[in-house]
Specification:
about 625 residues; alpha/beta
Length: about 625
């Protein structure tokens, strides 16, 4: 029998208040060794306060906090303030002293290389995204017992995100992660802390099952509120009839009814706020006559990087059709933004031509938010000509109501843009762009700093958009929901197209990766896709005259293994579908759900391996 994991940190009956209304009251939770926790909740739910309680920075007005003696806590913060003259290497080691430096030094090169940052770079000369990567590198090198990560995937490309997932899944310590990246949270967590209206709800499963679990809790709450409402209605009816000779007992009952009614009203209002969604009308249909709206023909583009030339596009030809929904992937510096700037006319190709229809209009969401003036108010940003109304898809809307759609408190309408957080600035940019989207909507990293509710809203808006859509993003789940084509900028002028979303692109890369007899995982660095003829030629060149005994045996045994896995998956799926299973044994439910995911992954690997071996066998038989 496995021993229970060690308790690293415990908080009991915590009270935290900044104003008269407490942020937390009666807050209790435990964090154990090797836990993988997703910390989720709406903006303002108290995620930052909870993190500060864990680190010990936040003083509690009441309650107890216990930390295992000798345990360490590391924290990747959102904001990093660099010091003059400090290198990335010095910053990473600023909290590591003496002999420990030599022990950790070897990790610096590995981690900084994976995160694409120069350890000798000066911190004050780094961009905001590079500073975030330096902060992440420092947190990983320090290897604390409890590692707190606040939006670690912001400003990382997909290759770095996938590397980070693999690294964290092998991490020996405990993780607590706040992230808007659903796929990232699903891949690294086995537990969820959900902050909802001042209370902490804990799921024994990872974020992959959060939607179903939270929906079940909200539906249960809705049923309880309906029952309470009916009960209070009966009591109110009794109290309003008037009872003869009211004695003290009856008067107390009348007072209790009043209290019940007020409590019910407050709980109903809180429930409505918790389940409310942004109310955005569908984007108007874009009317255009031509099917091809933009065309790149034999485009070549490069930049000078020191004494060498950095190739971005090389004889690149591509047609953008009306109504295309294109997702753009690629490492930082691979040419994504250059491609967009040539499309909108801000950059010219070195060779070739870019032809765009004259009537083509662009709405451009710039990740640097260059269209936002920090000195302007929210109102002036949306109504630059003055007045209280903004034209939203051809109809006049009051600016207060429109801002409320994007989860802004109307009382902040006169606040300056400089006072907003990164996520609020992104929401304001979205409000500005989506008020009157043109025939082509370009979103460059729109998901950075957005919470999950805003991402859901944005995904819903884009699903109703009928124009041409181009999205640059490293959020895999978001791309899967919004685009139907992928353009992957793989570096050195190579661009690969794939029909589908990110998952389809990943499947394509797996299929076209070099054959591997050890069935190792796909390399994180994508290789250029082979043409059909080249692929066949390569296959014929490396195929043996016959399968080895080991491979032949593996090919024969895999069908039985696949059948056994399918049976096991079917049994576990039926078991998890039993509504009493979770109620009776939530811990075992979580373990079964995790086993199911492992079996599904193993089944997929077995099927792909059998197909690989079967294709090798067919090639051998055909050439015999």
């Amino acid at each position: 029998m496995c021993a229970a994991p060690n308790l690293l940190l415990s908080v009991k009956d915590a009270l935290v208040r900044y104003t008269e209304k407490p942020v937390f009251e009666g807050l209790s939770f435990n964090i154990h060794d090797r836990a993988r926790i997703a910390l989720v909740g709406k903006n303002g739910a108290g995620k930052s306060t909870l993190i500060n309680i864990i680190t010990g920075v936040q003083d509690m007005d009441d309650g107890e906090r216990w930390q295992s003696p000798g345990s360490t806590i590391g924290y990747l913060k959102q904001d990093i303030i660099p010091q003059d003259g400090q290198t990335v290497f010095d910053y990473i080691f600023s909290e590591i002293k003496g002999e420990e430096r030599e022990l950790y030094a070897y990790k610096v090169d590995i981690i900084t290389d994976a995160l694409q940052i120069d350890p000798q770079a000066i911190m004050t000369k780094l961009s905001g995204g590079q500073l975030r990567r330096a902060g992440l590198a420092r947190a990983l090198v320090e290897e604390p017992d409890i590692l707190l990560l606040d939006e670690p995937t912001n400003h990382l490309d997909l290759e770095a995100i996938e590397w980070l997932e693999e690294y964290l899944n092998q991490y020996n310590g405990t993780l607590v992660c706040v992230s808007h990246d659903r796929a990232f949270l699903a891949n690294i967590t086995t537990q969820v802390f959900w902050l909802d209206r001042g209370s902490l709800k804990v799921s024994p499963q990872g974020f992959r099952y959060f939607d179903a679990w939270s929906t079940e809790l909200l539906e249960q709450e809705e049923r309880e509120l309906k029952n309470r409402k009916q009960s209070v209605s009966i009591e109110v009816a009794w109290a309003s009839r008037g009872v003869k000779a009211r004695v003290k007992r009856n008067m107390r009952r009348v007072e209790k009814v009043r209290e019940m009614r007020e409590k019910l009203r407050a709980d109903l209002a809180a429930y409505r706020r918790a389940t409310s969604k942004m109310n955005i009308k569908p984007v108007k249909e874009v009317d255009a006559n031509s099917k091809v709206v933009a065309e790149f023909h034999n485009v070549y583009k490069s930049f000078e990087d020191g004494h060498k030339s950095l190739k971005i596009l090389d004889k690149f030809s591509y047609k953008i059709q009306r109504g295309d929904r294109i997702g753009i992937l690629g490492k930082n510096g691979s040419g994504k933004t250059t491609f967009l700037k040539m499309l909108i006319g801000d950059l010219e190709p070195d060779q070739g031509r870019v032809k765009v229809k004259k009537e083509m209009e662009f709405s451009y969401f710039d990740q640097k938010r260059s269209d936002l003036d920090p000195s302007h108010t929210l109102k002036k940003t949306l109504c630059p000509a003055g007045g209280d109304y903004i034209a939203v898809m051809g109809k006049e809307r009051h600016v207060y109501g429109y801002l409320k759609d994007f989860m802004f408190d109307p009382s902040r309408v006169e606040d300056k843009v400089s006072q907003l957080s990164g996520g609020q600035k992104n929401r304001l940019m979205l409000a500005k762009v989506l008020a009157d989207p043109k025939s082509c909507l370009i979103l460059d990293e729109p998901t950075n700093d957005l919470d999950m509710e805003t991402l859901d809203m944005l995904g819903e808006i884009l699903s109703n958009y009928n124009g041409t859509l181009i999205i640059v993003s490293h959020d895999r789940d978001f791309l899967d929901q919004t685009v139907t084509k992928i353009l992957a900028f793989e570096g050195h002028g190579t661009v690969v197209e794939c029909v589908g979303g990110y998952s389809d692109y990943l499947d394509m890369k797996r299929r076209t990766a070099p054959e591997n007899n050890n069935n190792e995982s796909v390399p994180t660095k994508p290789k250029q896709t082979l043409k059909d003829d080249d692929e066949k030629s390569a296959s014929n060149t490396v195929s043996p005259q016959k399968l080895t005994y080991k491979l032949e045996r593996e090919w024969q045994l895999l069908p039985n293994q696949i059948s056994d896995l399918e049976t096991e998956i079917d049994q576990m799926t039926k078991k998890l579908a039993d509504p009493d299973f979770y109620k009776n044994d939530p811990a075992e439910f979580g373990k079964t759900a995790q086993r199911l995911e492992r079996r599904k992954k193993k089944l997929e690997e077995a099927e792909l391996r059998w197909l690989e071996l079967d294709e090798m066998k067919q090639n051998i038989d055909a050439s015999a």
